[in-house]
Amino acid sequence: MLQALKSVRHLQSSAMKQAVSELCVPVPWGELRGKVWGPDHGRPVLCLHGWADNCGTFNTLIPLLPKALEWSKFSIIGHSMGGNVAGMFGALYPEMVDAVVLLDSYGFFPTDKKEMLKVMRQGMDQMVQFEKMTEDKKRRVYTYENAVERLMAANPILSERSVHILLERGLVQVEGGVAFTRDLRINLKNITRISLEQSLELQSGIQASVLVILAEDGFEKMFSEPEQKKVTSAILQAYRDRNHAVVTVPGDHHVHLNDPKAVAPLVSDFLQTKVLTQPARQTAERTSKL
């Protein structure tokens, strides 16, 4: 990962203010794009968005957080799927991560072992069918107004303002209108599955401080069936047993975007306590930029 980051090139956008620039990381299959907030001299906080979102999901939250961080390790703020990536990365590379913030995410998303084979097969079958589709069928063209309606229908918890924020990066101009930029394969069944036992084993490998922020009307409400609750409760209790923080705030799954002031004080206090008050270690990595 660090080697890839060394090849990062920044594309400054004249339309952006407050020391915000574009980020482009070349990878073998294309490019990873994102945004860089704050000064170059700080310790980075990597923000990972959710399954069907983009980095615009943090537009309203980031300006409310402290950004004078010093570079030695990095912290991760992950929402939804991004939180699962954060948990996995923190477990596999604990020496690289000093703090993890999970926004309406458990850090891992286990599947019942009895359901795992069926779910993985469904995903493989859907992928085969998707690859048989023509490009015209894969990409639909919308007017901007219809695209707004489409996203609001697919994700009704988003405020209208949040929808427009996500569509800033979520649409591309094409002949006849606009098209969604996300890879449509995200609509297929996810075949990457692990059990509760595997989740807990990975979780035990996280050395970073962890803050879990759950939304009252988010995943806690969505996964309220007894079997689902048993799994999520086990993961949350394991965080508490390791002296990590688990808090609940009013709001929905996108509370960090719809109502960032409900989340920002918790995240700011956590970063100030767990990151900024710790002695900064000067390393050769300081010259890298994220």
Walkthrough of the structure:
The termini are close together. Helix 5 packs across helix 6 (160-170) and helix 7 packs parallel to helix 9. The chain has 11 helices and 10 strands. The strands form 3 sheets. A 5-stranded parallel sheet has the order 4-5-6-9-10, with helices on both faces. A 3-stranded antiparallel sheet has the order 1-2-3, with no helix packed on it. Helix 2 links the parallel strand 5 (74-79) and strand 6. Mean pLDDT is 84; it is low at 1-17 and 280-290. The protein is globular, with a radius of gyration of 19 Å. Helix content is 37%, strand content 21%. It is of the alpha/beta class.
Task: Tell me, briefly, the overall form.
Answer: globular
The largest sheet, given as strand count, sense and whether it forms a barrel, is: 5 strands, parallel
Question: Strand order within the widest sheet?
Answer: 4-5-6-9-10
Pattern of helices and strands: HEEEEEHEHHHHEEHEHHEHH
Note the gap between the termini: 11 Å
Helix content: 25-40%
Count, helices: 11
Share of residues in strands: 15-25%
